[in-house]
Design a protein that fits this description.
Elements lengths: L1 H8 L3 H17 L3 H15 L1 H17 L5 H8 L9
């Protein structure tokens, strides 16, 4: 996720997506649902559009199911360094 954030800050969205996809795979393989959800949300914000918003909604629902009241704020503390999110 750190590598993805660095790439995103540099404007290299292709690399940022590749790095977030690697994190998604690792988190899913390790059975880490919260981490998988925040990586999925970051991916959604990176790709944008309707497809991206669908991923954000999926991630937010998964986080709320795990007891996270405000997914965006929680993700900013768990996966920092990305451009400021818009609610």
């Amino acid at each position: 996720m750190l590598r993805s954030a660095i790439a995103a800050a540099r404007g290299d969205i292709t690399r940022a997506l590749g790095e977030v996809d690697a994190a998604l795979g690792a988190f899913a393989a390790a059975q880490l649902p919260l981490e998988t959800a925040y990586a999925l949300r970051r991916r959604g914000k990176l790709i944008g559009g309707e497809a991206g918003e669908a991923l954000v909604a999926e991630a937010d629902a998964a986080l709320r199911e795990k007891g996270v009241a405000d997914p965006m704020r929680w993700i900013c503390s768990q996966a920092p360094g990305f451009p400021a999110p818009v609610k």
